[in-house]
From TrEMBL:
SUPFAM superfamilies: Concanavalin A-like lectins/glucanases
Keyword Signal on entry: yes
PANTHER family: BINDING PROTEIN, PUTATIVE, EXPRESSED-RELATED, OS12G0171100 PROTEIN
Domain Alginate lyase: 50-220
Family matches, as Pfam families: Alginate_lyase2
Keywords noted in UniProt: Signal
Gene3D superfamilies attached to this UniProt entry: 2.60.120.200
Species of origin: Asparagus officinalis
InterPro entries, per the entry: Alginate_lyase_2, ConA-like_dom_sf
Record's protein name: Alginate lyase 2 domain-containing protein
Length: 224
């Protein structure tokens, strides 16, 4: 290699490093956000009305496990929705969470092989948006994590922990989903003015008989 080539290498190599460092810094999704204090009373639970909570939920060693069967009852006598075991993170007493600002929901999720046709996370909204009470649903169909029943957010999610960050910018009306810190979905929100984060298992069409998701490291953060 001639001296000029060495010169080029010496010049280009640090540039490559700088680029990687920028990428790494950019990977810290919570920069500018502060965690909101959460205690158990913020974890508002919904589960089939005829069962004890311990038949569809456990909280052991920091892991919240939620499960439901497609044959279970809805979460209340009066509801006609399909069975669910879900947690809604409620920061204020009316059960809703936020109406303005930029919010982030971070946690690790685990879905066992066999769980399908189920929503594992949603951003609830009120009043109803076009086509429903959610502005985001992440569903599992045959091992793929999907935006509703539409595009795939991440393939092959079964049987492993993965990190999910959801950022909802209510001013820009945009929702972003990151899996293991990589941006995987950017969508407009679907209306509604008051929102809250929910997670667990909520039966959808073509579900498996048994549905389960596990969660840990849950944080709600607000952009300041
Ligand atoms: C838990 O959070 C609720 C709602 O934010 C609050 O009213 C309550 O005082 C908190 N309890 C404790 C023990 O911190
Ligand atoms: C899930 O289980 C089925 C049936 O046991 C198996 O055929 C399939 O390969 C498994 N999928 C994954 C991703 O492990
Ligand atoms: C389920 O399927 C029925 C009929 O095919 C449809 O009307 C309904 O909107 C579907 N529900 C969901 C949650 O996709
Ligand atoms: C459910 O699955 C069947 C066959 O597997 C398919 O024809 C149907 O469109 C699916 N329905 C929904 C709502 O996904």
């Amino acid at each position: 290699m001639g001296p000029f080539a060495w010169f080029l290498l010496a010049f280009l190599f640090p540039l490559t490093l700088v680029k990687d460092v920028n990428l790494l810094c950019h990977g810290d999704l919570t920069d500018g956000f502060i965690p909101v204090p959460l205690n158990e009373s913020n974890y508002h639970k919904l589960w089939p009305y005829n069962l004890p909570l311990s038949d569809c939920y456990s909280f052991t060693d920091g892991v919240r496990k939620l499960w439901v069967y497609s044959t279970d009852k809805s979460h209340s006598h009066s509801s006609t929705t399909k069975p669910r075991t879900e947690i809604s993170i409620s920061l204020i007493d009316d059960g809703y969470t936020y109406a303005s600002g930029m919010w982030q929901f971070e946690r690790q999720a685990y879905v066992p092989n066999g769980t399908s046709g189920v929503c594992i996370m949603q951003i609830f909204c009120s009043p109803n948006a076009d086509g429903g009470a959610t502005t985001l649903m992440l569903r599992v169909y045959d091992g793929a994590l999907k935006y509703y029943q539409q595009q795939t957010v991440e393939d092959n999610i079964y049987d492993q922990w993965f990190k999910v960050n959801v950022i909802h910018d209510t001013a820009a009306k945009v929702v972003k989903v990151f899996i293991n810190s990589a941006l995987k979905l950017t969508v407009n929100n679907r209306g509604g003015s008051i929102h809250s984060f929910k997670f667990g298992v909520y039966t959808q069409n073509n579900s498996s008989c048994y549905m389960e998701s596990c969660w840990k490291g849950i944080k709600v953060l607000k952009f300041v």
